[in-house]
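pasting for ref
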Amino acid sequence: MIKLLITLILTLSLDAKMTDYNIKPDDLHSDRYMDITILDSKELEFNNYKNIKFREISDLAYKDNTLYGLSDKANLFKFKIKIKSDKIKSLKLEKAVNLHNKEGHRLPKPDRDSEGLTFAGDKLLISFEKNPRVELFSLHGKEIVNISINKKLRDIHNYVSHNKALEAVAYNKKHSVVTAPELPFDHGKYHTLYSKDRNWKFKKAGSITALEFINKDKILVLERDFNHFTRARKTVLSVINLDKCKKKLCKKRVVALLTSGDDWNLDNFEGLTKVAPNRFLMISDDNESFFQKTLLVLFKLDI
């Protein structure tokens, strides 16, 4: 009886770290909206893991029921996740580590602004701001090699600001590493995606915070916008077909336009990862603020 009670308490404790959260407007009576279906959404809270805070999660990477989360303080989190019947059934934090260099030392402070995360084979690609670069890391958070990226992306002085650099990164075998400045270099109306030797432009709707390949040519783009005066938030999900661009200009298909003005319960969404065909997870960065949340949303792309 005592063992059963202890098991129940532990189970409830784990469940309390992942609670249901409705991001949809109350008057939206369908899970389908535009070209996505909201399958599930949770608010996440985890205790510190060996003095590493579960805060400011900026991107995700998924493989074989394992979910990795990256904070913009150069912390890597490993979860075991169970998704069944299009619902997030469980999420268990198994490990958290500081990113460290080839010599085994924690990354120096100027190099810790980690933002984008994705799998490349059985390793992790991570993009950085302030000192803009893309690096390959082991699953244990150890630096392996610096990735050669487009020369325009290497100089922080090309960016709108030091905090508007490489927020997102994606990878597949056909296009290799694809990344983008959070905002256009020229303050213009068009974003540019870059591989090492190619680039693709499309119309801007906000700041690029995540990229994720849908298949070999289509890429899902997450953009966000925040009005500091009205506190209004906007989250835009769009699909770009890199193989169908004319003169490097791509048509953009907006699959979801979510705004707090339309009573969507949004937060600062910054991360994406594909978990199954046309199924994706999206996560928000709480900015280590009492007033913000870490939200995890499972959605289906209906195209």
